[in-house]
Amino acid sequence: MNQDNQRRCLQCNKVLHGRMDKKFCDDYCRNSYNNRQALADGEQVKNINAILKKNRKILQEYLGESAEMIQISKQKMMDAGFNFGYYTHHYTTKKGGVYTFVYEFGYLALEGERFLIVKRESDGSAKKNVH
Ligand SMILES: [Zn+2]
User: Fold this and answer.
1) Which pLDDT value is given to residue 3?
2) Which residues have C-beta within 8 Å of that of residue 63, sequence separation ≥ 6?
């Protein structure tokens, strides 16, 4: 290794002296750095949670209070701002249909760019009439 390759503090970028595995000048820099990382992690989680929350709300609003399932066009979901890249889990029925779930609300792709939206019971079992 080139000795001119000076190691620098990950927080303040000052040149480091001493142990080779040293990453920070002192505890202050270490703490500042770790806090910043934690904040960045928190932001990531917050952003994704916000997308999931919005997706859930869209499904919830389309399904309404009383309906057990409803059909809707993909375009309508996209217009509402639904983000198909974010979901919580999948559920495969015995017949091989794969529902994509956002918390308790799920959707199944149908023919013709349409989706079937369903709500899953809170006990974790799918509604009996979901096929
Ligand atoms: Zn430092």
Assistant:
1) 53
2) 69, 70, 105, 117, 118, 119
**pLDDT, tens digit (0-9, with 9 covering 90-100), for 51-96:** 999 999 999 999 987 778 999 999 999 999 999 999 999 999 999 9
pTM of the model: 0.73
What's the CA-to-centroid distance between 42 and ligand 1, angstroms? 23
- Percent of the chain scoring above 70 in pLDDT: 89
Cα of 14 vs centre of ligand 1, distance in Å, is 6
Separation of CA 29 and ligand 1 centre (Å): 5
Q: Are 70 and 117 in contact, with CB atoms under 8 Å apart?
A: yes
Cα of 1 from ligand 1 centre, angstroms:
23
Question: For the stretch 4-24, what's the b/e string if a residue is b when 16 or more beta carbons lie within 10 angstroms of its beta carbon?
Answer: eeeeebbbeeeebeeeeeeeb
Compute the distance from residue 13 Cα to the ligand 1 centre, in Å: 6
Could you tell me the distance, in angstroms and rounded to a whole number, from the CA of residue 40 to the centre of ligand 1?
19
